[in-house]
């Protein structure tokens, strides 16, 4: 039982490049979330999903897209990376909108 | 004003001492409250939920004051392993039933 896993762990992008972050969970959770964490800002919700095939915007969705084609996977895409997207990205999943289980994070630097 | 505010610290605590810190929230409709723990460069993990009557989990005690809109966490007999950042988390229907994270309070326990 791996819990929540994220791929990749680290990435450096140049401005304008695109990439996809993958989140996978093996707990059969309905809810999945993508957050970014910046110093002094706390965790901010980017997008979330309440079930397979559904997605919704969170607090800071601009510049990101998501997809949830399979229940266990939640993808976060950056179409044209900007330096402001340098951050640590965490994926989380949960049974309900209460306790969330987090992945180990992806450290992204955009130069 | 941030929805969930915390003193960033750090709180420097001698081993064996007691430390307490608060978190304030702005949304009076908030319904659920949690403390998460985050170790350096790691993912957040649920420490404990906070109930209206207050609750204890070993050396940790959480309190909720709805009238003044704050929650507190007290750590007794601090251990070196308690060094971490403690995140205050609030859930409210007004926020689409999603979790809102505070910026965290850093605690450093020293020998």
At a glance:
The complex is a heterodimer of chains A (111) and B (111). Chain A has 111 residues and is mostly beta strands. Chain A has strands spanning 4-7, 10-13, 19-25, 31-38, 42-49, 56-57, 64-67, 73-78, 87-94, 101-102, 106-110.
Question: What can you see in these coordinates?
Answer:
The complex is a heterodimer of chains A (111) and B (111). With 111 residues, chain A is mainly β. In chain A, 0% of the residues lie in helices and 52% in strands. Chain A is built from no helices and 11 strands. Chain B has 111 residues and is an all-beta fold. Helices cover 0% and strands 58% of the residues of chain B. In chain B, strand 9 and strand 10 form a beta hairpin. Chain B is globular and about 40 Å long. Chain B starts with a strand and ends with a strand. At the A-B interface, strand 5 of A face strand 5 and strand 10 of B.
What topology does this entry show?
The complex is a heterodimer of chains A (111) and B (111).
Chain A: E1 4-7, E2 10-13, E3 19-25, E4 31-38, E5 42-49, E6 56-57, E7 64-67, E8 73-78, E9 87-94, E10 101-102, E11 106-110
Parallel strand pairs in A: 2-11
Antiparallel strand pairs in A: 1-3, 3-8, 4-5, 4-9, 5-6, 7-8, 9-10, 9-11
Chain B: E1 4-6, E2 11-14, E3 19-25, E4 30-38, E5 44-50, E6 55-57, E7 60-65, E8 70-75, E9 84-92, E10 98-101, E11 105-110
Parallel strand pairs in B: 2-11
Antiparallel strand pairs in B: 1-3, 3-8, 4-5, 4-9, 6-7, 7-8, 9-10, 9-11
């Amino acid at each position: 039982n791996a819990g929540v896993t994220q791929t990749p762990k680290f990435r450096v992008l140049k401005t304008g490049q695109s990439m996809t972050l993958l989140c996978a969970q093996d707990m059969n959770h309905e809810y999945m979330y993508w957050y970014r964490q910046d110093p002094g800002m706390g965790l901010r919700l980017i997008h979330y999903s309440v079930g397979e095939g559904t997605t919704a915007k969170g607090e800071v969705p601009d510049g990101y897209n998501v997809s949830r084609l399979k229940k266990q996977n939640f993808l976060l895409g950056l179409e044209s990376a900007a330096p402001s997207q340098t951050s640590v990205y965490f994926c989380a999943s949960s049974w309900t909108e209460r306790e969330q289980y987090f992945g180990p994070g992806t450290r992204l630097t955009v130069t | 004003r941030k929805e969930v505010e915390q003193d960033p610290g750090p709180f420097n605590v001698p081993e064996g001492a007691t430390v307490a810190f608060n978190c304030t929230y702005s949304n009076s409709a908030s319904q659920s409250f949690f403390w998460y723990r985050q170790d350096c460069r790691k993912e957040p993990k649920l420490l404990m939920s906070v109930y209206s009557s207050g609750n204890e989990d070993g050396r940790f005690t959480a309190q909720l004051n709805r009238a003044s809109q704050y929650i507190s966490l007290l750590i007794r007999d601090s251990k070196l392993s308690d060094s971490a950042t403690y995140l205050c988390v609030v859930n409210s229907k007004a926020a689409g039933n999603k979790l809102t994270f505070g910026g965290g309070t850093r605690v450093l326990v020293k020998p």
